[in-house]
Amino acid sequence: MKERQSTVQSMPVRPHVSMAVGTRIMSNALTRKLESYEPLSPEDRHALDALVPKVRQVGARVDLIREGDEPENVLLILDGFACRYKVLPDGQRQIMAYLVPGDFCDLNVFILDQMDHNIGTISQCQVVDIPRKAIDEISTRHPSVTRAFLWCALVDGAVLREWLVNMGVRPPNQRIAHLFCELHSRLEVVGRVADDSYAFPFTQTEIAETMGLSNVHVNRTIRELKALNLIRIKGRVLTILDVERLKDYCRFTPNYLHLRNTRWGERRDVAWPGQTAVG
Amino acid sequence: MAERRNVETLVVLQPIAVDTDSPDREGMLVLANGLLIALLVRLDTPEHEQFGQWFMEVGLGRLKGLRTPTFITLDEATRWFRGQIRP
């Protein structure tokens, strides 16, 4: 475990607000996420529960694995926020992804000789280390779980592409609004949104490092979104005051998240090899 | 041309009002040896972490796209620019 220096602590105050806004917590985050891609049987769910026998608590802003380390296990975030990042020799940091409850670092990460980037927590997290053997076993016996795992990998890639579009062509205000909409959708799936509010432990610096903007521009943009009555940030909780209006504002289209229970989800049913049809 | 190394870049600041779509509007054009190289803006919005400091809003030439520190005083900013733009 490696402590990381946090450059600036910003964003509104209050010390701690639990990530788990809803009542369903713990291993359910994984099951709920996978069920958003594939219908799972009680046996599938039982097998998934067995994947997470030992949960460890990790403090905020701690590295889980560093560039150059040899990956041994698959990391699963059960609660809290983590991120993937790289640091240039001059100290500048770029965050390339957020990991929210139910998210894995790459499922096939143990194929790599060494990590090409870092993964660190943003808030306090509940983390599970899943050995390769357990992933192999569940994949052999539970085809629905395997398909859901494949969805996870596809969607991770899709999110990365969307972030690339975000950084490349969306103006700063829409860029940040888009991130807030995406977090809303992803956290809702795993039961971490209540009344359009979710935990928001990010510092202004972390948002800047994610969006390729300066702290100053992040500050101005968030101020503008507040002034337009689109969002409120209080006590490390972000509330979207009008979800549809915020989505319109940044032209958020959730197709890239490929969730089953959305109007986009209906379009994505495919027959998998070896199957005649899929529900 | 050996003595040219001893010649310092002449950095001149010129006040200018700037539209940043925020209350930050007090600006300074930064000229180095007569060439416009950057635009500084004073952070006058109380929510800024670096409230009251000078921020490089735009950098030109080799300063383009740099994520720079903010400066507490204009003297500090001038010294920094002089260090960046060597003759």
Rg result of chain A: 19 Å
What is the radius of gyration of chain B?
14 Å
What's the overall average pLDDT of chain A, rounded? 85
Overall number of strands of chain A: 11
How does this structure look, described?
The complex is a heterodimer of chains A (279) and B (87). With 279 residues, chain A is α+β, with helices and mostly antiparallel strands. Chain A contains 8 helices and 11 strands. Chain A is 37% helix and 19% strand. In chain A, strands 1-3-7-5-6 form a 5-stranded antiparallel β-sheet. The model of chain B has no long low-confidence stretch (mean pLDDT 90). Chain B is mainly β and 87 residues long. Chain B has one helix at residues 74-84, and strands at residues 11-17, 26-32, 35-42, 54-59. Chain B is 13% helix and 32% strand. Chain B contains 1 helix and 4 strands. The relative contact order of chain B is 0.23. At the A-B interface, helix 7 of A face loops of B.
What descriptors fit this protein?
A: 279 residues, alpha+beta, Jelly Rolls, 19% strand, B: 87 residues, mainly beta, globular
Blueprint (SSEs and pairs):
The complex is a heterodimer of chains A (279) and B (87).
Chain A: E1 2-3, H1 28-35, H2 42-51, E2 55-58, E3 62-65, E4 73-79, E5 82-87, E6 93-99, E7 118-121, E8 125-131, H3 132-141, H4 143-169, H5 172-189, E9 197-199, H6 204-211, H7 215-227, E10 231-234, E11 237-240, H8 243-250
Chain B: E1 11-17, E2 26-32, E3 35-42, E4 54-59, H1 74-84
